[in-house]
Amino acid sequence: MPKLTSHDGVQLYYEEAGTGVPVVFVHEFAGDWRSWEPQMRHFSRSYRCITYSARGYLPSDLPADPASYSQDHWRDDVRAVIDGLGLDRPHVVGLSQGAFAALHFGMRYCSRGEPPEARSLTLAGVGSGAHPAHYSNFQCISLANADLIRSEGMDAFVETYGHGPSRIQHQRKDPRGFAEYAKQLAEHDAEGSAMTMAGYQGKRPSLYSLVDTIARIDVPVLILTGDEDELCIETSVMLKRAIAKAGLAVLPQSGHGINLEEPALFNQLVGDFFHRVELGRWGERDPRTAPASPWGPGGKP
């Protein structure tokens, strides 16, 4: 069973397929290494693709210390995968919680004035709980979800969180695919999930407090959101405005887990992005088109 070691000693399970330019996939809270199977099968025809289970997700380690579950740990685990496998500036692709990790990786390791440690960042379904109007409530809900997992188990959690308003789009379009997603979520370790929910989801900073740092990201960025993923739409637009080399794609009648819900469209958009990055054709936004601030004309949201 292939594993690599994080910078604080946690063993991370990974799988890889294909050869070529490396791509690292970072899963969401409700996923694990299996969540990227449609992308692993598609992109491994042309790329060296790596998927891994984050700390707290089997068969990776389940650290007992709650302090081991934080935004910074997830960010640095992306770096650990890159270092542990000797990857040369991979494309980093994240969904939801994994997109937060990819974004923070970009802020730390792909900032203006420093040699970038990734070729590009893809941020899909990014922004839940980040907007100032939702931030405090999202933290409270995250702690309540951690309590739910501990008290009632993963099956009960799947029936609530797993069937949330940005998940039923997947269920409506692809019942078999949705059933597989729900089954895999129910198989997660309850304590690892609870500590991730409380430590990462419940304590991560609002992205709106980090706009100046976000704006320093100096690699190509693709932002993807479903138009019915209500908690992510506004933040996705903010990120597009803040990052000079960002592009934004909105998938119609789509929810949160868009790599599974709309795999063909997701793969097409990401594949085109990779191609343009590698040709040097994904440029910076013309400053004549940019708004007066990262939130648009008028400044604050």
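^ that was protein a. below is b, sequence first then the tokens
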Amino acid sequence: MASGLPWQVTTEGLTITVRLTPKAGRDAIDGIEQMADGRAVLKVRVRAAPSEGAANDALVRLMAKSLAVAARQVSLAAGAAARVKRLEVAGSGPALAAALAGIVEANRS
């Protein structure tokens, strides 16, 4: 995505490329990582196991809570069975992008 960020502002809100790690010790957004193919992804970990969609549900809840939006505003657009996923968040794209940038910056320190 543009400028090496794993998210892109759209007319509907924000699209985020995520690399999810299930069965982690805690639920957290760990920052931005560059993949081998050059794509930037948002590293996220959840405690839930990747069975019956539990990890995907935990990812949606974590992103909704982190961005201060309702869970129904966050949807899994691609990658339900893959480690790299694409989320769509409905709302004000610039405001959501600014909030996510703040979360990433706060986790950097």
